[in-house]
Amino acid sequence: VMPDLDEPLVEVEEEGDVVPTENFDFILELDTAANAANAGDQTFTTDRGQTMTHKTPDEPTAEQVAFMDKKYQALEDALYGDDLATLATLVDINDFARAYLVNEVSKNLDAGVTSCYFTYNSETGKFTTAPVWDYDNALGNSVSIAERHDKNGAMLDLTRPDGWYARELMHYDTNFKGGRSVFSQACYMTSKTADGKSFLDIVKDVWATDFADTAAV
Questions:
Q1: What averages of pLDDT result for each successive group of 10 residues across the chain (217 residues)?
Q2: Which residues are CB-contacts of 178 (< 8 A; sequence separation ≥ 6)?
Q3: How many angstroms separate the CA atoms of 184 and 167, rounded?
Q4: CA–CA dist 66, 58 (Å, integer)
Q5: Secondary structure string (H, E, C) spanning the chain
Q6: Does residue 143 contact residue 159 with C-beta atoms inside 8 Å?
Q7: What's the Cα-to-Cα distance from 79 to each of 14, 48, 100, 105, 211, rounded to whole Å?
Q8: Longest dimension (CA), the chain
Q9: Which residue in 67, 99, 105, 162 is deepest, having the highest Cβ count within 10 Å?
Q10: CA nearest 113: which of 216, 185, 209?
Q11: CA-CA-CA-CA dihedral for 84, 66, 171, 102, to nearest 10
Q12: Residue 118 phi/psi, 5° resolution?
């Protein structure tokens, strides 16, 4: 499930293999401050208070940490700054829409708040929202809705097959100052991509190509 990302190495003439300080593959996880503290993982906190866990490399250098943090911060700034055109240059936007739909259809308790992974591909210079993982509290398996609410404070029901969850979910870590969870924020962006599509337009396209046939079975 987790991509096999070895400690990144590059060949430098006359010096052998060295650990790169930028443009290497890595994985970050959205988390809550409490979860990360209990796990003892190495983390950083974004400008809006999102706790991010470094999943790979296992023991990043200070320079690598700075590179990873900068890359995700740019993504967060575009997402919460309602700049879809820039966001699409930082993350595979179709993949992001696909991850949203997986979370929405399954009504995943943690959708876009914790246990949500971002893998950076050094070749494309973009994140993908992969691997999808930790769906133990999905598909009606969890009845806990405490603190899971929309912007009006209305509780969101995880047990019903109808209605929205990921699209409406506010971030429930009190340290986070951005408001909506990442998937909810994307759904409410009003800006468009360079080719004139909103995020929900992209979601509809991805649904039609990747989900509709399965949903009809």
A1: 48 55 89 79 90 87 92 97 98 97 91 92 93 78 76 87 92 89 97 96 95 66
A2: 48, 49, 50, 76, 80, 171, 185
A3: 4
A4: 15
A5: CCCCCCCCCEEECCCEEECCCCCCCEEEEEECHHHHHHHCCCEEECCCCCEEEEEECCCCCHHHHHHHHHHHHHHHHHHHCCCHHHHHHHECHHHHHHHHHHHHHHCCCCCCCCCEEEEEECCCCEEECCCCCCCCCCCCCCCCCCCCECCCCCECCCCCCCCCCCCCCECCCCCCCCCECHHHHHHCCCCCCCCCCCHHHHHHHHHHHHHHHHHHC
A6: yes
A7: 42, 12, 14, 22, 24
A8: 62
A9: 99
A10: 185
A11: 60
A12: -125, 120
Q: Which two tokens mark 55?
A: 């999943």
- Which position has the token pair 């360079």? 194
The pTM of the full predicted model, rounded to 2 decimals, is 0.87
* Structure-block tokens of residue 168: 């409406």
Tokens 């900068």 belong to residue: 70
State how far the alpha carbon of 10 is from the alpha carbons of 14, 63, 71, in Å: 12, 15, 20
